[in-house]
Amino acid sequence: MFDRIWDLFRRRSTTSPSAGPADPSSVRTGSDPEIVEHRIPRADLDPDAVKIVQRLTRYRHTAYLVGGCVRDLLLGLKPKDFDIATSATPRQVKRLFRNSRVIGRRFRLAHVYFRDGKIIEVATFRSREDSPEPEDGDVMIRDDNRFGTPTEDALRRDFTINQLFYDVGGSKVIDHAGGLADLERRLVRTIGEPELRFREDPIRILRAIKFAARLGLDIEESTLRALQKTSIDIPKAAAARVLEEINRFCRGGKARRSFELLFEHGVFEVILPEVHALYDGRESCRALLLDLLEGLDRRTASGIVPDTGEILAALVLPGLAEPLGWTTDGKASQPRGLNTRDLVDETVRPLAVRLRFPRRDQETCRQIVMTLYRMVPHDRVRRTAKRAILRRDCLPSAVWILECLGKRFGDTFATAAAHWIKYRAEGVEQRPPHPTEERSREPSGRGRRRGSRGRRGGANRQGGRRTESARKSEDAATGGTEKERPKPKPGEDGWDEDYFFSALPTVPQLGEDDGEPNRYGGASAVPVDPGDDEQPADDEVPRRPRRRRRRRRKPAAEASDEASDETTDE
Questions:
Q1: Domains of the chain by range and CATH?
Q2: Is 83 part of the annotated catalytic residue set?
Q3: Measured distance CA(397)–CA(71) in Å, rounded
Q4: How far apart are the first and last CA of the chain?
Q5: Each residue of 245-278: pLDDT tens digit?
Q6: Gap between the Cα atoms of 31 and 174, Å rounded
Q7: I need a surface site. Which of 95, 185, 538, 554 has the fewest CB within 10 A?
Q8: Does 81 participate in catalysis according to the annotation?
């Protein structure tokens, strides 16, 4: 890697008259950039990023690879992503690429989408707005949509190592602020006055620590002094950006080194004051935290990206070891009456509200701590509880954390870690199925229907039908089954010619009027002898029972008034 950088500087000395700043503490910010011929193999470049640059160039726009991808390629590392800077505006980029979308309000840019979820960021050259410092001293950048030239865009960036451009067509590295010299010296340096740049965007403080830890660089002296002085301005930044940088610390493979620098420069207590209260004056807790962060690094190196809930559990668990009954000599006791969920909530909730942790990640943190509490000591866990633990989604996270606890504390934790690793490997294959799993394996058919509560015989019904026992009891009470009951025939009792009319009490039966037009507008079909005074029998004419009209009760106040009037009359 160093030979590659040395060859790069040897080419620069032959192609450019200036060999960089004579004073290491100064940064060259002239209008004439330093151009160095350096061919990066096409195999190291992203083919989709190269296609975007070529299309922008074909339509007479200036486009370069910029930022971290150029820095990592010069250091011999594999870039995580590729960013592009261009003279085309976001709307022009959207016209050229149908698979793009314009995003952002404070900093508008275009995202070009590809298969497998890959996104390439295309930003327009920006320029700094030289405005006088406000009276209140607030110089934070809240609107950065003023377009400019490539030189202005390079000088408005945060660090010298991030302002390098790479021309794909000409195989040249373009340096506007001495970034190549700082890569050779392995320094992180701000462009311009350090204190002003950190006050413009306090997140740059966290980015400086991230680059120093991930790339193995040193922070330049004046930049470090400004970093320590302006760290109190970090809470002014958006909470989502702070949370994003914390996740990047833990997912970049250098979590332990990043938090060591946070502790060293006094930044940890600013970004995580709720967690810092657990570690203040307790070196054992801080040592355990660093061990867990080293476990996160091993997990990241194996290709597993830890989620936010897992990171949150690693941050708060060392401070909860003592309330959980865990001692540094490897003993574990379960205090009686301890509610682990409330214990975790007391610590996590304030932090989650301030940094806006999603509820899903908060619940993941709770489940990890509660599972660890039940896993130690392992000989007190019942068999049914072990089967339940095996089915938890957070078990992989709990196992590697328990393994780190075993290396730090030993004794009970080391034994429990070995037991659960073995039991997990064997239990996944040999554990008996849970009743709920057996139920889920059955073919899904028509769901079971319940009888209505308001329907008579609901207790004797199943699936909306009467059960066999209920049907037999009804048949025994009636003296036979429904199949044995004969149906009435026409002409017999209950089924005469006027059967349907007799069933309606409000409709008069045919042949019982006096021959005058009835209520239906016609005369009766059969005339009746006027001398016939015979009346039909009572049993022949079905009568509808009269419903008793319920008397309206008077209000209690009126009833009491009437009672008082009666007593007065007496």
A1: 1-185 (3.30.460.10), 190-271 (1.10.110.30), 290-433 (no CATH)
A2: yes
A3: 34
A4: 118
A5: 999 999 999 999 999 999 999 999 999 999 998 8
A6: 12
A7: 538
A8: yes
